[in-house]
Amino acid sequence: MSSERTSPAPGRPKPGETLSEGRSPYSASGVSSLQQQMEPLLPGLSVEVLPRCESTNTLLLQRARGQDAQPCLLVAEEQTGGRGRLGRVWHAQPGASLTFSLALPLAPRDWSGLSLAVGVAVAEALDPHTPPRIGLKWPNDLWLADGSDRKLGGILIETVSNDSRRIAVIGIGLNIAPQAQWPQAAYLQEIGVPGDAPLVLQRIALPLLQALQAFERDGFAPFAERFAARDVLRGRTITSTAAEVPDGTALGVDAQGALRVRRGEVEHRLASGEVSVRPRPMPAGS
Questions:
Q1: Does an H or E element contain 223, and which?
Q2: All domains of the chain in start order, with CATH
Q3: Neighbouring C-beta atoms of residue 62, cutoff 10 Å
Q4: Residue 211 in contact with residue 203, Cβ under 8 Å?
Q5: pTM of the predicted protein model
Q6: Could you tell me which of 115, 114, 116 has the C-alpha nearest to residue 227?
């Protein structure tokens, strides 16, 4: 894990209080209601809203390294330096995005497949339809499931030791409305998911926590079939950052969440890394 630049952490609010300034869409009553829903499952949880920060994941990692292990759901109305996989930057625009991180102690027997389980929880909470409108791209992205290969959001999971415990920081970014900087990006409103960022957060926060606790208890296996129902890579030709499997055909994931890839006559399993899809063939006459 890369080192983080340290900075003073803001003070924690009183229960139900938001640290946001001005005309925030996050009401104190909404924050308090969310905390009351989640705290029975995660005692000591605080729910905090910042008007702006560099990265919610970075801030919670800094707190954990400073021996602050209190569970926290931290929301940023604007995130200026959010981090994705492989060092990519995720900039959240106020009103058009939802960016938050959940920090909590987590001790699963096997961490394999955690980002996939998180993706399942978020997608099912927002899109309980069959066939699904929200698909999942291994290992950490939410895409439209219409074959357009357009990204709706992403997941970044990081961990840090705190005394004898491991603190997991689960970062999630979702496009709510059109993005001025990325007009090609998918967004929830275009597939009929109603509401602004606070309402979307209300829909996914509790199911996310429940999924994390189920994963801690049972691992990825209970999520495997549900992931398969939304898998946008299965059957696609992919390229990979893994030197031993530079390309191949995605066959789905196994019971541990590893991506199965066929290259020639050999099936490989990718437990980590990044994959890309080759563009779909254009229809004749287009």
A1: helix 221-228
A2: 28-223 (3.30.930.10), 237-277 (2.30.30.100)
A3: 18
A4: no
A5: 0.88
A6: 116
